[in-house]
Hints:
Elements: H1 6-35, H2 40-68, H3 78-102
Amino acid sequence: FTQTTWLAQVFTCVSVGVMNTLLLTYLMQYILAFAGQARLGSVMGLFTTYASLLSLFAQTGLYAWVSDLPSTSAEHLIMPLEVASVASTYVLIAFGSYITMRGLPEKPV
């Protein structure tokens, strides 16, 4: 993957669009079933806060790793970004599997 191709860029853009659409739809279905109408704002706010804090710590670690590497060429960015990509994919798979196995609650909590 040392050379960027149009096919890889198109595939990445389509994948990100599809993933974001499906993930947000899936999460909203889960949040609506979990929170109900009365607490939708609170649950969505807490979910966004927790996700933002987790993302902040992960990005801080990634940027620290990238800044510690020698910057003689742009190739030094490949390893940290590949690790971050693989890690985030595993986290999404684990989160989706957890929700799928646990299922939606029968009534709002």
